[in-house]
Amino acid sequence: MGQPVNVGVVGCGAISAQYFQTIDRLPQLRLVAVADLDLDRAREAVRPYAGVDVLSVAELMADPRVDVVLNLTVPAAHAEVALQAIAAGKDVYCEKPLAATAADAARVLEAAAAARVRVGCAPDTVLGTGTQTARNAIDDGLIGSPIAATATMMTPGHERWHPNPDFYYVPGGGPLLDMGPYYISSLVTLLGPVASVIGAASRTRPKRTIGSGPRQGEEIPVLVDTHVTGVLVHASGALSTLVMSFDGVATKAPNIEVHGEKGSLVVPDPNRFDGPVLISGPDGWRELPESAGYVGAGRGVGLLDFAATPVDQNVGQQLRAGGSLAFHVLDVMESLLAAAGSGTAVTVTSTCERPRPVALHPSVS
Length: 365
Description:
The protein is α/β, with parallel strands linked by helices. It has helices spanning about 15-25, 40-45, 55-60, 75-85, 100-115, 130-140, 175-190, 300-310, 325-340; strands at about 5-10, 30-35, 55, 70, 90-95, 120, 145-155, 195-200, 205-210, 220, 225-235, 240-245, 255-260, 265, 275-280, 285-290, 345. One of its GO terms (molecular function) is oxidoreductase activity.
């Protein structure tokens, strides 16, 4: 890479601060402009960062300085904003999910291919030392041939802390579409793409009460299932059992476990970049040293990896946190919800390459 890649951000909500902090400490990236429907919120979000322009969305899309649009809007707006960026001839990197529906995500990828621009997508937590060290252990044969995995996320719901949690409980939300991208992206990174799914789902109550902020005490409707469970059948033959819930109170289950014919791994929280990786052996469990991934990573390291991947597709390097992986993960989630609704197994029509491993990178902090 030569000059820094200039980043324009659309959406200055809660998650934007983490991205801004990461971009600010990476010399390969430069934040040049932000846009938000609430311009005051945008101004406040970038107040710590000198020289960042606050623009309208149209102005940001037309700005010739912007190389890549970082799309941090709510999921329902992901496709619309991504398509605007693509129409402006700019690369785009989205917060997860890639779009609210697989159909909208397909439109984004088709438009990007036609415009010859690139699409990346969170979560980039899979590029950290946690998931990558576990993946390295699998690739090195430390647990033998993988047989199965379990993935569990259990929380009473985000309305306890989020001041505007409405979008978690409308179509495009729910525990699977909210947190599933972290877990399923990690499972695909560890075990490869998913071929079919079976599932079941439920919801415990029709309303939720906001627990903090200016709307504290307000009730909001629940329009999606809030407990989803299923089995992902990977193309490799491995089986992953998934539980995603906004209904349970707590769990002591590991976030992810992977079982092989010779041993098992405990993989850290896929919503984090790092954490201990444990492996079973004849003398019990031991912690593996960090052996792969970006050290000290934060949200936005996927944008760094995106920018560092050669544009020339002839080199054979697919984006690690790329559109094809994000589309497959979204397709898996929609297929799981369809399986839960029908009570039958559903074939996942998409696939993707298992993302390339990340060598152990020195600290990006």
